[in-house]
Structure prediction request, 461 residues.
Amino acid sequence: MYRALLLLPLLALLSAAPLSARAAEPCCSEGYADLLARVLPSVVSLSVTKVTRMESSGTRTTARRERFFGSGFIIDPKGIIVTNRHVVQDAVDITAIFHDSTQAPARLIAAAIGADLAVLQVNVGHPLQALSFANSDFVRIGDEVLAIGNPYGLGMSASAGIVSGLNRNLNETPFDDDIQTDAAINPGNSGGPLINTAGEVVGVDTAFYSQTGGGYIGIGYAIPSNDADFITRHLLDPTLPSPGWIGIRVQDVSPLVAKGFDAPTPGGAVITEVDGAGPGYAAGLRPGDDILDVAGDPVTDSRDLLREIGLLDLGSPVDLTIWRDHRQQTVSVTPAAMPNIVAPPAAVMAPEQMAEMAPSSGPDAKLAVLTESARQQFKIAPSIIGVLVQSVARDTSPGEDSLQPGDVITNVNGTPVETPDEIDSTIRKARAEHQAYVPFLVSGKEGLRWVTIYTGMKEAQ
Prediction:
C-alpha cells in the first residue's frame, strides 16, 4: 500500500514527460563496461597441455596428457605475455586464446625461479594492444580493482572488488608481499591481470584462499605490479644487472624472538643460515644476527630486508646495523649478483621424452560405439553413423568448438569413422605425419559442425 502511494507522483511525472525524452535517458549506470572494452583485447586465456607421470603395474613409467587453463596479459605489442610460472610448468603445448576467439601457439621465453612468474610470446602477424604496469607502491586498501581471466576454462570473465589487504605473505618465496582482494579469483584466473580503474595492471592474479580446496570465498592474491615489472624485465633481458644477494636466510623477529636475543624491540630480520660461498659469510655475518637496518633504512621484516638487498648496487659495500651479543654493531657487506634467478624453457616445459611417453589421446572425451540404447538415451537419429561421445573431461570448456556428451563423430580428417579404434588410428597417423591438428565432423543437437582436435605435435612456427 505504502509503495503504491509513493510511486504515484513519480508515475505522474513520467507520464507528463515526452516519450522521446524518456527513451533517450539511460536505464542504468554503465559500470565498468567502457573500461573492460579497452582492456579485454590485451588479456588472453591460456589452454595448456601438460604431461602427468603415472606408475604402471610393472617397473615401466607411463605418462598421460591433461589440459589445464590459465590466463595472461600482453605487456608488449610484439606479443609478450605475462603469466604465472605454475600455469606453464610441465607444459607440452601452450595456446593463447584472445578475446575475439583468435588462437595462436605461445612460446615460453623464460620463468622466474624466486617468483611465480613467466613470460611467453605469440606471433599473430600484427602488433597487439598492451597493458601498462601501475606503481603498486601507491595501491591502498579500499581501492577498486577488477580481476580478469579464464576461470574454470569458461572463457574470458571479469569480477570487481576492492583491495582488501596489502603485504600478504603466502610463504611461497622469500619476497612475498602480495595484494589481497575480494574480486573473484578462481582456478583458471592465475596469471591474469588485477587492474585499477585507470585500466593499469596493479597485480598479477596468482592464488586464492580456500579452507575447503574449492573456489572463491572472498580472498584472492596478486603479485604487486612493481615486483612483476622488475622480474619480467629481467626475464626478457638477461643482460640487466641481477638483484643484489648476500647469501643469507632470515626470519621475522617476533616479540618472543626479540626477548630470546635480548633485542631492544621486535622488528628486523634474524639470520637462520649463512651461505659459505656468499658475501655475508665473507663479511662475518652469522646465524642469530638480527639485522636492524640497511644503510640507515630500518628493516621491518625478513621480506623487507631481502627486497632492500635486492635493490642494492652490486659490488658496492653497504653497512648493516645488527644486534649481536646484546648490543648494536655495524657490519660492512658487498652484495653480489643473485644466482639462478631465471629458469630457461627447458627447465620448465616437459622434456621431449616425457612428451613421447604420453602420445595424444585425441579428444578430451570418452568415446564408445554407437549402440541402440545410446541412440535412445541421447535421441540420435538412425541415419547418423559414427562414434558416440559418451562423456568429456571435467576441464573441457563448453562451446561449439568442443565435444559434448551425446555428440557423434562421423568423420575424422576426411575419413568416415564408426569405432573409437578408427579415430585412434587416424590420430596416430596424423602424429606420424607431424600434423598438429585434426578436423572432426560432429553431429550434435544443433546439427553438423567441425571441431578441431590437437594431436599433441608441435605446430610449425
